[in-house]
Amino acid sequence: MHIAEWSLHFYRLPYARPVKWFNSVEDAATLVLLRIADGNGADGVAEAPLRPTWSGVSPRSIAAVLEDLLLPALEGVDIGDAAAVSRQLARFPENFLAKMLVENACWTLRAAASATPLWRLLNGTETVEASWCVTRQPPGEMAREAAWMIDRHGFRALKIKGGQGLETDLAALRQIRAAVGSGIDFYVDANGAYPRAEAAAYVRTIAGEGAKVAEDPCQLLPDGAFAELVAAGPIPVLVDSACACLKDAAQFLERGATALSVKPGRIGITEARRIADLARAQGARVCSGMYGESALGTLISLQFSSALPTPLVPAEQSFYLMMSEQVLRQPLEIMGGRVRLPVGPSIAALVDWDRAGRFAFRP
């Protein structure tokens, strides 16, 4: 199986409200879609959100890497062989988001060519439990959004964005708990906002408020201080931003990590599976982390999520609900806190190319 043709598509999907991340504010998601075809009627697709402060890439830069380096490198390579694709891409350093696009497009093409749903190809399940991410806002607004999303979609777990200052974070946790009741699990992602010297106290404090996991309470490094933080913590310390590849994961596991965030929409399904396998072999747990995907990117990432036997927390891929427009032909629905994955083998066939064109832009 070989790539016979490919194309790139850029578009922006608006949000229902502005979204405040730890280092940026957005009113729309900027996305790139890679489409590949094998010449025998099978197509594969992958999508990436383009946030320069997350990945350091722009529409023009990712197009250049794909056009000049990665896709030419796969000429003559059997893309039906996931290991062969990975080896070829590994010749080029960095560029994890561009590599993710190629890896995931190849995975969706393999599924289409074999007439097998990708989740089944990955030994996954047809339904996946999901959590909702409450992004940074005033605490009262965070509480109202959490309650509304739980009422509408049945989420049983919340990822709460912290890092707004200890008092604001605590107010958010308390108001969210009052709004949603005691039957909802929640965990806190501070996006590395606090000094390392304060991280242990922060973890203890949010645990005292009922948080089940502390994600990136400070800028984490695989060193002695991290090992002490993990050993002393009353709840798992989840490593996210510093775990971008198998090498990173191995270094943190050597320092006693018990929880890793694995993002198929950031590093690709192949690398995500390797990290999950290594973590499981060393007694650690992983979660399928969000990367701000649209419904299309979410659908692809959830194929990996469905194959995690005992995830640390429910899959985080639900952020697409913040977007008021999508490029899928049919809505991706979350009911009772779960997503049912399509049984058809071709994810590319679910893309509405007219809608993609409606929101398109030229880099």
What does this protein look like?
The chain is an alpha/beta fold. It folds into 2 domains: 5-116, Enolase-like, N-terminal domain (Enolase-like, domain 1), CATH 3.30.390.10; 121-348, Enolase-like C-terminal domain (TIM Barrel), CATH 3.20.20. It has helices at 52-55, 59-73, 82-89, 96-114, 118-121, 139-153, 166-180, 196-208, 224-232, 246-254, 264-267, 269-281, 295-305, 353-358; strands at 5-20, 25-37, 43-49, 127-129, 132-134, 157-161, 185-189, 214-215, 237-239, 259-262, 285-288, 334-335, 338-340. Strands 5-6-7-8-9-10-11 form a 7-stranded parallel β-sheet. α3 (82-89) runs antiparallel to α4. The chain is globular and about 55 Å long. The model has no long low-confidence stretch (mean pLDDT 96).
**Strand portion, in percent?**
15-25%
Largest sheet: 7 strands, parallel
Q: Give me the CATH architecture of the largest domain, please.
A: Alpha-Beta Barrel
Order of strands, main sheet, comes to 5-6-7-8-9-10-11
Average pLDDT score: 96
Structural class determined from secondary elements: alpha/beta
- Specify the CATH homologous superfamily of the largest domain: Enolase-like C-terminal domain
Radius of gyration over C-alpha positions, nearest whole angstrom: 20 Å
Counted up, domains total 2
Number of helices: 14
CATH topology term of the largest domain: TIM Barrel
- Spatial shape: globular
Short description:
The chain is built from 14 helices and 13 strands.
Structure characteristics:
TIM Barrel, 3-stranded antiparallel β-sheet, 14 helices, alpha/beta, about 375 residues, 7-stranded parallel β-sheet, about 40% helix, 2 domains, Enolase-like, domain 1, about 20% strand, 13 strands
